[in-house]
Amino acid sequence: MTFIDYYEILGVSKTATPDEIKVAYRKLARKLHPDLNPNDKDANKKFQQINEANEVLSDPEKRKKYDTYGKDWEHGEEFEKARQSRGQSQYGGGQSGSSQFGDADFSDFFSSMFGSSGVGSQDRGSQVKYRGHDYQTELKLSLEAAYTTHQQTLTLNGKNIRITIPAGVENGQVIKLKGHGGTGRNGGPAGDLFITFVIENNTTFKRSGNDLHLTARLDLYTALLGGEMTIDTLNGKIKLKVKPETQNGTKTRLKEKGFPIYKKDGQFGDLYITYSIILPTNLTEPQKELVKQLSELS
After folding, report:
1. Same domain assignment for residues 117 and 61
2. Which domain holds residue 246?
3. Which of 95, 135, 149, 205 could link 91 by a cystine bridge, Cβ 3.0 to 4.6 Å?
């Protein structure tokens, strides 16, 4: 197996912190996603490489093995077991024997255990099954799209994966698609695909969990005398009754008119309306006179 420098792929140093690795991966994932590079024949390969690099370096245990064993990091446990077994056989099980089977024997061990040299090495290596790499990707959704259950097609390594996205997914939420990661070796199972949702909100609503918040502009006359107003929601228009003498900043709650609750059909959060009273401008002289009279009556 050719050595792949995962640090170089992500553009970070070997002393990079977990946060630095996370930031570097997300930046590259956005830049190299195959959907954004339809004319790049190597886009899938590059995207797969950064996913593999992130999958290893973001996991403390895997990163430690990678730093220790390099390209053969996935077989580190087999190496350690073989070293312990050899030590026990030489010393009757009383000592570890690590001094007799040190790191210098690492390459020879894998050459005989998994490589092409040694009698029967091919048979021994083919019996060991290895799970494929996990992949990670981001999927951007608008707030309106996250409001409804719908299907989308992802393109990963040249394959189309059709997924159903339940209504109510949150920003930063991660879901796992089992078996859609890297191909296993020697008949081993495929890895998994982890999708992180990025919810982009370009609406007038503010989302807080399953609740929605909206500031509604209310004209002065309706605020004073009461009446009705129409509100646009993510699920159509609704009419609100406004009480007379409604004050600026007044809040009202509409039960179950908020965001769908994830994987709970028919259940919703609440919608909170805050009234912002708009004062009239460009008053005519008669209108000013009426306001003056009103102020004198008050």
Report:
1. yes
2. 206-282
3. 95
